[in-house]
Every structure is written in C-alpha cells, then in structure tokens.
Design goal:
Layout (H helix, E strand, L loop, with lengths): L1 E2 L4 H11 L2 E3 L5 H5 L8 E3 L9 E3 L3 E5 L4 H6 L7 H7 L5 H6 L2 H7 L7 H6 L3 E6 L2 E6 H4 E3 L2 E2 L6 E8 L6 E7 L10 E9 L5 E9 L6 E2 L1 H7 L30 H27 L1
Parallel strand pairs: 1-3, 2-3
Antiparallel strand pairs: 4-5, 5-10, 6-7, 6-10, 8-9, 11-12, 12-13, 13-14
C-alpha cells in the first residue's frame, strides 16, 4: 500500500491508523530494503506543504523536515549555517541532494550522517508531531544510538529548529573520506567560533562525527577555547584529551587509532579555518 496525503493532519491520521513506513526522499529507505519486500505501507510525506521551506522566526530558524539538501545549500542563511551548507554539498551525489531531506538524514541516525555534526553544533532541536500534539527534543537527545532515534511510531518529524544564539558565528565543516565524492566519512568535524569586540573567542562549538555511535560535541575543548584570541595558531589548543567523548572503532574504512588521530587533526584545521575567515573579514 502506498499513501500520499496532502495535509499534515491527513498524514498523522494515516500513520496512526496503519503504522506505515514514513517516506520522504527515499534515499535511505530504499537502499536499506535491498532485495527484501516492504512489509508495511509507505506513507509518502513529500507533498505536505507544512514540511517544506526555511523560515526566520523571532527565536529560531525553522527548516521544514522535507527540505532537501540542495535547498539547504542554496538558502540565504547567516554565516553560522556555513558548516551546514558545506555538509549539504557533501551528502551523496547531486541527485541524492536533490531528493534527500534534512529530517531523513537525522531519522536514519547513521554515525556518518553529514548533517548531524553541524546541527548539533548549532544546538538544533527536532520538532515532532502526532495526533496527541507537538513536542521538541534537542537533536543530541533525539538520536539515541546507532540507527536509533526517539521518534515514536505515531510521530512525524516536522521541522528542525535552530536557535539564533550562534547563527552569527563563523562555522566550518570538514570531512575526511577515502575519495572526494560519494564517500562515507572516516571523520567529519563541524566547528563554530564567535568572537567579542576585542577579537577573543566568547563562544565555541565543536562536534565530531563518524568517531562514535552518535556525533559528539567536545565540551572540554569548547571551554578551553573561551578567551583565546581568534588568530592563527588556534589549532594548537587542541589536545588528545579533548577528544575523550569519542569512541572510534575499527571498520573497513579505517582503524580506530587512525580515526582518533585524524579527528584531532581535522578539529585543529577546522578551528584554523574559522579564524582565517575572521582575518579575511577584518582585512
């Protein structure tokens, strides 16, 4: 059975009645099926206008759940979203970016999901709707483990909400893979730095993906960066101990030891790129 509702209310009713598999871009759902038949109905939410587009509100930027990665990459957004836009351009091929959605990337909950580190760095929240109402969860709590989320069976992710707190910060996304395109990452890093009127760092966010079951922030490093000048050499502030929240594994793409070393290097490079952008702006 294939259902394609035209309103969110209709979609929530169909989901509650059928327990269907929610489908948006389909770029994760269909490859995961492989040769197996689909056991549940498909609930295609791609036609729901409530789930599309990017809007600026008084407290947050609202990104509709069915907004594609191409739309994210092309959006006119503050520089704090530069890391997210860079990640959008790394999601698979152009065809995948044209179909894949921001919420689909989150609900798939892959440790290598490109969108997760920049969104965690932005303190993004996930908005979920059901017949019972609407609730919000921090993205860091929404993704609860490897391929696991806190979405209930009767819920649809309706939006990603990004508070304005860091949207004026400089942000960078870096990804290491075995090749340039169509690559599952070995390590990826999102870094954000905000400076005060003296040029010193007054807020920092650093998140690393592909080095644990869920992308992780590095709070000890973030704290260590506060008060430092946003200048060349900032990468030397990064120490191996700052990466303690990570738990890199050995797999077909890299060893855990290589991932740990590469993560430290990429974090330093991302921070240097943030302050390089600041120097260019000042010039």
């Amino acid at each position: 059975m294939y259902l394609r509702p035209r309103t969110l209310d209709e979609a929530l009713g169909a989901l509650a009645a059928t327990g269907a598999q929610v489908l948006a871009g389909g770029t994760d759902v269909f490859p995961a099926l492989g040769d197996r038949p689909q056991a549940r109905p498909f609930l295609d939410i791609s036609a729901l206008p409530e789930l599309r587009g990017i809007g600026m509100g008084p407290d947050h930027v609202r990104i509709g759940a069915a907004t594609t990665w191409t739309e994210v990459a092309r959006a006119d957004l503050p520089r704090g979203f530069d890391a997210l836009k860079a990640a959008a351009r790394e999601v698979g091929s152009i065809q995948i970016q044209n179909r894949g959605t921001i919420a689909g990337n989150l609900c798939n909950a892959s440790p290598a999901a490109d969108g997760v580190p920049p969104l965690i760095a932005l303190d993004a929240e996930v908005e979920l709707a059901s017949r019972a109402g609407i609730r919000r969860l921090p993205l860091a709590a929404f993704i609860s483990g490897y391929r696991r989320t806190e979405r209930r069976e009767d819920e649809i992710v309706t939006a990603v909400l990004v508070p304005h707190a860091m949207t004026d910060a400089r942000s960078v996304f870096l990804k290491l893979g075995a090749r340039r395109y169509l690559v599952i990452s070995i390590v990826m890093v999102a870094a954000m730095l905000r400076t005060d009127e003296t040029g010193r760092i007054d807020a920092a966010r650093v998140a690393v993906g592909s080095c644990s079951a869920v992308a992780q922030r590095l709070p000890a490093l973030e704290a260590a960066l506060i008060g430092k000048p946003a200048a060349a050499g900032i990468g030397t502030a990064v120490a191996a101990a700052h990466l303690a929240p990570l738990s890199p594994i050995d797999d077909v793409r890299a060893t855990g030891a290589y991932r740990a070393d590469a993560a430290e290097t990429l974090v330093a490079r991302a921070l240097e790129a943030c302050v390089r952008d600041a120097a260019k702006e000042a010039a």
